[in-house]
Amino acid sequence: MLIRGTFVxxxxxxxxxxxxxxxxxxxxxxxxxxxxxxxxxxxLELQHVQTALILPLGTFLLPPFNDLHLxxxxxxxxxxxxxxxxxxxxxxxxxxxxxxxxxxxxLARTVYRRLGxxxxxxxxxxxxxFGTLKGDTNMxxxxxxxxxxxRAYVGKVSMDxxxxxxxxxxxxxxxxxxxxxxxxxxxQTYSVTSQSRPSFVHPxxxxxxxxxxxxxxxxxxxxxxxxxxxxxxSHMAESSDQVEWVRKERGEDDIHIFKKHNLLTSRTIxxxxxxxxxxxxxxxKPFVDLHALGTAIAHCPLxxxxxxxxxxxxxxxxxxxxxxxxxxxxxxxxxxxxxMSAMRMAVxxxxxxxxxxxxxxxxxxxxxxxxxxxxxxxxxTLGGAQALGIDSGIFRVGAPFDAQxxxxxxxxxxxxxxxxxxxxxxMIFTKVHEESYEKPDLTxxxxxxxxxxxxERNREAVWVQGVKIFG
Length: 471
Description:
Shape: globular
Number of domains: 2
Largest sheet: 9 strands, parallel
Radius of gyration: 23 Å
CATH superfamily of the largest domain: Metal-dependent hydrolases
Low-confidence stretches: none
Number of strands: 17
CATH architecture of the largest domain: Alpha-Beta Barrel
CATH class of the largest domain: Alpha Beta
């Protein structure tokens, strides 16, 4: 496949690159084999042999979004039940919803099928999913994610204490055995050699969080991950009530508990980490430690607002420590499945933090705590890919062709797509015939407008490793 047009990407934090009129060649395995200006000699040779798909004016390709933290069964009640503190909310809403899907496989398949459809429509190319306790229900989740073609890390939740009496595993050893059985079954079912198309579904070890996992269970899951090389996901330092519960019941912070059980590794994503620095004399030290361990953080700003309202995640400090960070929607602790919402909220929360810093410290003292829209776009694309350990999030030779196609305006009229309005551009199109005017290049301002007010109406296609999964 050859595809010619404008490519947009964030190769590093805060940097936006617009590559106008470039050509990507994608082989039969879905990897980029050529990526240069469309008028280079090699590009012209390729186009002489094969016809390129030419993107219309007003359209660009961007790497798809990566959602690092989403509770798949909680999609059942997305957008409701956000009125309680975290630990009460879990018992009142989350555990009940998860148990309901474990009892009803037909409902589970319906929920997970629609979840997959909504994810790709929202431009999500990879997602790390919390499932439920029951292995069979999680296999349904894996099946539906495989059918969408999305990159999905599916986690059978493990927990042996402090849950509903009817929604808990019998013992720590039973929980470890169940996690092993699920992971091995998923790998056997979706091994590359058994598939007509590549499988992007993988198991991820998922201790829910310290309050619901005994030390014995955490130790067993850490050993299982080391044995199998499977990824790990959990929650850490999410809310003040959770942090205080762990200190009271276990006598130390959950970062130390996870670390001693070998659950903070280069394969780990920990969601939230909002209160991770509250017990340290240096606010950046825990992030430096996570950077050294290679552990990534899923920043979920919307659920941060609901469940950690007394404290915002120290995003700038974590970035300064070079911790791997991406974004998560945290359905249903967050009510929006769209990573674009997470990007916007991440910027908004950081600006509030900067305002507080200026008021309480000094406008001229210290680095700004605010991030901008380009930094958030990096977190949603390449930053998230790096946290997941996948070679995606950027267009380059050797990388899989993962992309989403975004339309900003109609190439015939200059009228913006969806909610976008480009009034000056419309005037150009109405005054001059299309054949006689110089076609306008996409600008940062145009992309920023899409970032701020764009929605699903602007998304025309999504590819994962060369396969179009939407559009």
